[in-house]
Write a structure and sequence with these properties.
By secondary structure, the chain is mainly α. It is 62% helix and 4% strand.
């Protein structure tokens, strides 16, 4: 029996994590088979920098729709690998746009054909799963309108008295 599948809506997060783990695992195997040391979490940042040039953590977070903290962690990892560098903006010392290093540009050049193959494989999967992208878009829109947290609190306001108000324990 497939326990998460049997739970239906109660296991949406578990199902999505399982699918993401499977996809990320396969992609990691592909990079390894190609002899490339590359972390899948780097893709969005590297791809955006390659396509659009230097960008700040905040700009990348907004473009990719993920948290500032996640982009900051990715930046640190990419800097450690020597693939990006951050420089202070001469017009605004608070801004630290990151850009690809020479090593980063060379890696993107090596990865581009592989990314194209991954895109083709992704398109095959999308073709096999009728309405996949549209369903993901609808899920994203639904959760943007009202989060899972908001839905639970709305249906069970007594949870706020248990210290769950606004996602934090109260003192």
């Amino acid at each position: 029996m497939d326990y998460p599948r049997s739970l239906g809506g109660a296991a949406i997060g578990a199902r999505l994590r399982r699918l993401a783990d499977r996809i990320d695992g396969d992609v990691a195997r592909i990079y390894a088979a190609a002899g490339l040391e590359f972390e899948q979490r780097w893709f969005g940042v590297l791809n955006q920098l390659a396509l659009n040039g230097p960008a700040t953590v905040g700009e990348l977070a907004a473009t990719l729709g993920i948290t500032h903290a996640s982009i900051s962690q990715t930046r640190s990892s990419l800097e450690k690998a020597g693939l990006v560098q951050s420089q202070t903006d001469p017009d605004d010392a608070r801004r630290r746009p990151m850009q690809l290093t020479r090593k980063g540009r060379q890696l993107v050049e090596r990865l581009t054909p592989l990314w194209q193959m991954l895109e083709q494989a992704g398109l095959q999967i999308v073709a096999e799963v009728d309405g996949l992208i549209e369903s993901l878009d609808r899920l994203d829109d639904v959760l943007s309108r009202q989060s899972l947290f908001e839905r639970v609190i709305e249906s069970a306001p007594e949870l706020t008295t248990l210290g769950l108000e606004r996602g934090r324990k109260t003192r």
